[in-house]
Amino acid sequence: MSAKIKVGVLGATGMVGQRYIKLLENHPWFEVTYVAASPRSAGKAYKDAVKNRWLIGENIPAGVADLTVEDANDEKKALGKCQFVFSALEMGKEEIKALEAAYAAEGIPVVSNASANRWTEDVPMLVPEINYSHLDVIAEQKKHHGWDKGFIAVKPNCSLQTYMMPIHALIQAGYPVKRMVVTTLQATSGAGYPGVPSFDMIDNIVPFIGGEEEKTEKECLKILGKVQDGKIVNAEYPVVSSTCTRVPVIDGHTACVSLEFADKKPSLEEIEKIWTSYKSVPQELNLPSAPEHPIVVRHEENRPQPRRDRETEKGMACVIGRLRPCNVFDIKFVSLSHNTKRGAALGGILNAELLKAKGFFDNL
Fold first, then answer.
1. Measured distance CA(171)–CA(197) in Å, rounded
2. Sign of torsion over alpha carbons 359, 108, 289, 135
3. Where is the active site (predicted)?
């Protein structure tokens, strides 16, 4: 077996960065050899930088605990220490955008969890089961910037992955979706740490998450778009109306979705068959983090539930229940995904696995 690829984690002391480090422990392809964070953590051993604020609930991986944290703002520090980086940076969008570009310019690919580059036309925003073909735009991205080995690929907002695979499955099966109404019930971990104050969250629902509805309504169109003339052109449909709420759940985003089809309408039985048989490139390539069953359908009248269903397929499945006719549109259902696994770090790792399998790390 060939040696593992050495990887770095930017924003390694934050909540998503910690999740990356824990999920990469014993990964068959990747090994964390570099950690970077804010200047206040730089120079400390990783175990000391996260002392009293390690949030994952298990021990810090032994291979990372004694690594020295570097300043994430100095991209040259990563040279020779890792071959690509996962970005879990927490700073202003323009700062992140500039810093991710600086790493790419140094020949270090960036697999990002941050939102800063999601709307950059030549940066793929990947859900590997859906838009793996968007990797084709990376060649134009490198040419545009004059980058040799470096590039940037990002993942979408965590809540979209609660329902994008079932939408894509239906479109792929020949049932385009014209309009969609979605209400998300999003877990507190989606707000990071320390997140929403407990007084606001206990015995309460917060019916607003800044910027979240705009992401919900627009990012899906880029994911469903196509590569044309060296950039990603957004899809025209579906038109999405969303309401995004924060609920007192730790992990697991839930979405209540109503769909209207563009023309022909499948039966409920056909929809379930489409969903349960759905597989794509990650499953064909047998990527280490890919779920065997990307979409799981439950028939109990009170499922899915975050506490019971978020870990389905190791937290990488979209779990669907309550599929039924809709009196306003055509169908409606409830879906659930694990926001800090599929929606964050493990989704980013799956992106990196796809990039490796497709040869994007061959010459690093």
1. 40
2. negative
3. 158 (acyl-thioester intermediate), 253 (proton acceptor)
Instruction: Determine if the peptide bond prior to 304 is cis (ω within 30°).
Output: yes
pLDDT tens digits in sequence order for the chain, 364 residues long:
468 999 999 999 999 999 999 999 999 999 999 999 999 999 999 999 999 899 887 899 999 999 999 999 999 999 999 999 999 999 999 999 999 999 999 999 999 999 999 999 999 999 999 999 999 999 999 999 999 999 999 999 999 999 999 999 999 999 999 999 999 999 999 998 888 999 999 999 999 999 999 999 999 999 999 999 999 999 999 999 999 999 999 999 999 999 999 999 999 999 999 999 999 999 999 999 999 999 999 999 999 999 999 999 999 999 999 999 999 999 999 999 999 999 999 999 999 999 999 999 998 8
Q: Contact 241/149 with Cβ under 8 angstroms?
A: no
Catalytic residues: 158, 253
- Residue closest to 10 by CA, chosen among 93, 81, 80, 100: 100
Tokens of 169: 């499955």
Question: Which helix or strand (DSSP H or E) is residue 41 part of?
Answer: none
Paired strand residues for 206: 246
pTM for the full predicted model = 0.96
Q: Which residues of 295-310 are buried (b: 16+ CB within 10 A; e: fewer)?
A: bbbbeeeebbbbeebb
Query: Which domains are assigned to the chain?
Result: 5-155+345-357 (3.40.50.720), 158-337 (3.30.360.10)
End-to-end CA distance of the chain: 18
